[in-house]
Fold this protein.
Amino acid sequence: MSKPVLEVTDLKITFRGRRRDVEAVRGCSIKLHPGEILGLVGESGSGKSQLSLACMGLTAESGDVSGSILLTGIEIVGADRELIRDLRGDKIAMIFQNPMTALNPFYRVGEQLADILRVHHEITVEEALSKLEKSFVEVALPDPKAALKKFPHQFSGGQLQRIIIALAVSCEAKVLIADEPTTALDVTTQKQVTDLLRRLVDELQMGLIFITHDMSVVSEMADRVAVMRKGQIVEQGAIAEVMGNPQDEYTRLLLASVPMLGDKKSNPPCSGFTTQDDRIEGAAFLRVRQLSKTYPTRRGVVHALREVDFRLMAGECTALVGESGSGKTTLAMSLLQLLQPSSGQIYFEGKEISRVERKALREARRNISVVFQNPYSSLNPRMRIIDIVGEPLLVLTDLDKETIKQRVIDSLEAVGLSQEHLRRYPHAFSGGQRQRIAIARALVLEPKLIILDEPTAALDVSVQAQVVELLNELRARKKVAFLFITHDLALVERLANRVLVLYKGEIIERGTVEEVFQSPKHSYTKELLSSAPRYETFQKNIHKS
Amino acid sequence: MSADDQELSLAERAGDLIKHNRLFVVGLVIAVSFLFVALTATWIAPKDPQAIDFTAKLQAPSLQHFFGTDVLGRDIFSRVLHGARTSLLTGVLVVSLALLIGLPIGLVAGYYGGRIDMVLMRVTDVFLAFPPLLLPIAITAALGPGLYNALMALAISWFPWYARILRSSVIAVKEELYVKSSQAMGMHPIRIMIKHALPNSTTPVIVQASMDFGYTILAAASLSFIGMGARPPTIEWGLMISSSRSIFLEYWWTAFFPGLAIFILVWGANLLGDGIRDLLDPHYSDKK
Amino acid sequence: MGLILIGVMTVTFVLSRVLPGSPVEMMLGAKPTAEQIAQAEEELGLNKPLIQQYGLFLTDAVQGDFGESLITGQPVTEDVFLRATATLELVTLSLLLALFVGLPLGVQAAVKKETAVDHGVRMGSVAAVAVPVFFLGLLLQMFFAGKLGLLPLQGRIDSGVLLDYAFPRVTGFYLIDTLLAGEIGAFASAVRHLVLPVLTLSLASMATIVRVTRGMMIEAMQEDYISTVRAYGVPQKHIHYRYALKATLIPLLTVVGLTYGFMLGGSIIVEYVFDWPGVGGYMVQALLNNDFPAVMGVTFFIAFAYLLINLLIDLLYQALDPRLRQT
């Protein structure tokens, strides 16, 4: 085994605060060899970002760092700042989470990247540009020569990420740190980027630390994995060992929480309901007919929805699968009567609700609730929980205060919270708890349908699993139908009976989950399925060495 | 992931501010002192501020007259103390009135958008097209000079700013999911505006208003200085300086002390305003 | 923008006709007879229906006719144009001073954030903004002209100089014209007269520019793309002066526009204090003498100038920000 390019020993980072100190990293040790990918897995607050920042010498002024970090044999902890600065962009490089803001919008791409290269090497502008052009080719960026002259806003997220990777490659760094590089990208683009990184690591014999919260991605591309929790590494080792035979409680929790296709253990088929044939007229309580929505924009007309047509059955969970730009949010907003369709109708229990005034919508509103994606934005920060959850009752019923209070308490208890939370404000709760509150608010009217727009996307993995469990339990108990909007196919398998696939405003495939997942007909569906993490692939990966 | 340690309450942040930010304390002290003076001027002023005494005219500062006397023999120290009342009143009235007019306009324009927004914004654009001070001067000229006319003119010139600031804030808050949630429930728009939009969008306006307090006092004093604001017998610092214009070269105290008073009050108000801004909008603090 | 212009004219009209305080009575002085009032109203067209008055006003205004000044008897427009360059010279120089001093100070305060330099600059600017413009003018006069006798008290140039050294008015800017004519004595006199008024007018804006520049620099430093270049080892100095500064300069343009407006308003007061023969001083004289047409005319012209400046700045902004260029 060759010498490690990065060696961290007993690293401790403490931030001095006005009120108290925060121990971000509490004694971590890792080793990274050339040609090796180390997956650094942890949820928010685990310290994984701080660890990587320390390796780059970028810990903030207010942080005390102790221990040892050897970058290609050079000690970083306590070293001269100028020395470390020299190493950055030369021996060690970084790829960021948000490629859209990573580059300077006022300069052309070639200009600013060449600038960076010339800080570390005595080369002319032309030499730097030609080096960059070669790197652009390596990362498969289309039309490399022209790309150099463009501005950052002219590229897509995936392309920008490649450009940053190209920069790291041009720097000939020995260590590359990728901090959640695929989180902000589409599922299909994600795979391209991770494949690219794997290839480059092998070719150039770099060491890569891949920071993520997603266990399945780690299993696909990493050689070794370190699991971090609250500043400490709770488990570390080869993929096969850690994932095949996890020793630590937390590791096991993380592994169990990641939804994967075909995982029969964690994805029991939805119980309690047999799916009804939706072609029988009258079996559905919500009917969407030829719904279209167009927007005029500067560049012409945008067709957000094209003649969308489907039915929802009582008590079922229907998943609406689509990526960004598919029109799923537009559809949700139209169902909630927040948007007027351009053409087509929506019927609730036989009555049209798509182009009707407020008063006539009352009945429908009482029966359709919503849970949004962002738990930090969906609760009014200046309202108490009792008022937030009670609001639907206040607006849509004539119940008195006492009854409302009781219903609110019932609702909160149904989602695992309690009476003592009534008088508190949202900021006192975590993301997962806030989402529960949002669910409680959706339940309090005892609606027939709850629309859930990516309700777990903004949550930590371990919390996601809890929420999914809660949703399944609620559906069984309360016999309410769900319209579950998501891009995560494994979640669909865990929750839904039926699935609709939305692509560019059209429903291109529909059927029960089993039908669609076993024998997809449309090419897009096939693509989605192949990009989704699969349980059998996961098992293969972790047993490959 | 407990959130208790992330968010300190407003009271705690205020306490922090007082402990660590010395300038804020200075501002607070100044503001409170001037407030005290304004409220108690009638009792603590050593002499009657309007008492004319030609035998004592234009005397230099002394133990009998701390700030000297003016051309009519009036005690400048007492006049300065009484002037505090006028200036503080100015600041409070102008800002309050401007908020009273501007907030509803900004709220409605921001929430409804569309044509209502366009019309309201065009109107405020016209007001904002005038350089500061010009419009108040013109309005006061039309209404006729006088303190209350000047205050109204200032309020009329000021409200468009607040309307604009609130509007931008409301436009952002409108997209928040808790607003969409209530809309989906079919809540009445006016109720949504008052219960959800307004409470969450007022912070930038409050911040701006607290920083504006000092500036309104300056503007009012400027108007009085050129004869468009307060008129005798009202006691106002700008007016005092204006009346001393022909004689201040020889009798410096007739202009110096009122001017100093303006400076200290406005300075204190600005420090206080900065502190309030740091308190309410911590992300802004770096922009200072 | 044309719409706003009409709005401005409308406001001016409203102010002059609709509000209480008949201009006629103010013009005719003490106790005019009913006949005199009627005659004056007839002359001024005040007895016509309001809509017709508005129409007349607009057509006149578009042609630049704002009536005659009650004091000078000349058309207001002429009066304004005679004095415009004096004000322009004052305001432009003040703006330049505010920028040349304020910008570097603001940048240094941002670069040396939280050090003694930063704190000193910030304290200074908070204090500078609190000083009333007229008070500052008087103080400077008291000290430099009164006590020290170094600089002239008021006016734009020594009257003696005007007699001795004649110089043709080419641009209307004394600094330029005297140099063009080669009259160094006159030039020196013009400079000496400019020092105090320019200092007075620029101080508050200087302080504002310092604060805003500092704020924008610090904000620019926190942008993601700055973190990127820092992560790639670009030295701090490079980051400050090449990237952060460039990001600051473009939005600073808007501040320049606002400052110009602030100074246009402030020039009214400064010209009054220093007896400067510009538009502002004319305005104050008009105000004190109830010269209504003059007041309205000046109001319009100053507002118009401000609008033009802002339009110019909008255009510059578009040209400089690459994100706005291609739409």
Notes: Chain A touches chain B through 38 residues (CB under 8 Å). Residues 288 and 346 of chain A are 5 Å apart (CA to CA).
